[in-house]
Amino acid sequence: MTCYPAFAAPFPVSDVPHAPVEDFASKYTQAGPVGAFLIDRFFDGVFDLLGRVRPRSVLEVGCGEGFSTERLAAHLGPDVRFEASDVEPALVERARARNPNVEIRTESAYALDRSDDAFDVVVCLEVLEHLERPERALREICRVARRAVVLSVPREPIWRALNVLRGKYVAAAGNTPGHVQHWSRRGFVRFVGRHADVVAVRSPLPWTQVLAHPKVAAHGRKPVA
After folding, report:
1. For a FRET experiment, which of 63, 88, 93, 204 has its CA 20 to 30 Å from that of 1?
2. Considering the domain boundaries, does residue 3 fall inside one?
3. Which of 25, 33, 37 is nearest to 1 (CA)?
């Protein structure tokens, strides 16, 4: 699992089940005033994108310890069917303890145990940069999303530059351990655009967030705005 910088919103997912699990709670509980401000800005962007869709059902893929799940659940409210998942069983248990009213499953982003168009919106926050095969995960996320996907990744090269300025991971040119994909804002929009029509982009420092409608797939479904 990744060790995130203090300003990062830690929503970990592992490409390999049963990887070593770190304590990500401190990234929320000990973020400091600057880190807390940036994380609040991050979620402001996510909530703004969700507000453009007004979903009745939402799935979060890669929920980690459930801190993001907690914020999403509070924002969506009881009238929205909300579920979450992560590939790491230990993190799922922690997420369940933190969110007793949310159904949280153990499943891989590469093979979601969900039917086509199962949720109005699928949310995937700070996950794709950790995956060796992010396009495979994106295809699966789009398969499950009936109306839209909300995605976020670190914005490069700003992310690494901020790490270097803080004296973090200097030998690795500021790359956070575990980040194997690196997208600029434009590059991430282009990547998402292979499988979904991007309709809105937000850039709270230091992230890129995208709202997109899945394209028509082989089984003939059409995105609903």
Report:
1. 204
2. no
3. 25
